[in-house]
Amino acid sequence: DAMVIQNPRYQVTQFGKPVTLSCSQTLNHNVMYWYQQKSSQAPKLLFHYYDKDFNNEADTPDNFQSRRPNTSFCFLDIRSPGLGDAAMYLCATSSLDREDSPLHFGNGTRLTVT
Amino acid sequence: AQTVTQSQPEMSVQEAETVTLSCTYDTSESDYYLFWYKQPPSRQMILVIRQEAYKQQNATENRFSVNFQKAAKSFSLKISDSQLGDAAMYFCAYRGTPSGTYKYIFGTGTRLKVLA
After folding, report:
1. Which of residues 21-40 of B touch A (CB under 8 A)?
2. What is the pLDDT along chain B (116 residues), one digit of tens a residue?
3. Any CB–CB contact under 8 A between A43 and chain B?
4. Does any CB of chain A come closer than 8 Å to the CB of residue B11?
5. CA–CA separation, B74 and A82 (whole Å)
């Protein structure tokens, strides 16, 4: 089945230690998104790629970076994680070839910062 | 800027009963898409139902249906014959039409509890 896959499912990192979360998709969608979701809150968009065109949200901290080396993969780098960065990180895709395309989500990576 | 509001942080429904979750939004666009997503505890967020703003007919997917009131900017979700598996967070989301708009704006969610 075509899907969005996030690895790892759970990630523990130390305060200030860089961490990378990964996302891959087999849907061949042209847009990929990274969302941060804290407990019982709405997902907050960090950035998105339309093909290789990177779009950063104005309030996304500089501590968060992203890479999309090809259509299938996208990475979220947190350069110096703080305790406030502990959250669920959701990767999602959509296809703007179809106007009513919904978001397709991965299972998420739950990040713990110790 | 567009906003999405879900005014019910939590709702409860008896198994087999019907429940309606509310969502309102604000936009100056005339054409857009609205979505309801379900996020079970510790599980993947999945699409429940979608609605195109220029379609007057309310979308329906099995036990799930919407009441879309464009003039009132209201998009409620009705779940009929509620089942234990319907317990989850439900998020309403808005997306404008393309031409540079790739963002989906989410409401704060409603936690639905289903009572046996």
Report:
1. 33, 35, 37
2. 789 999 999 999 999 999 999 999 999 888 899 999 999 987 889 999 999 998 888 999 999 999 999 999 999 999 999 999 999 999 999 998 765 567 889 999 999 999 99
3. yes
4. no
5. 38
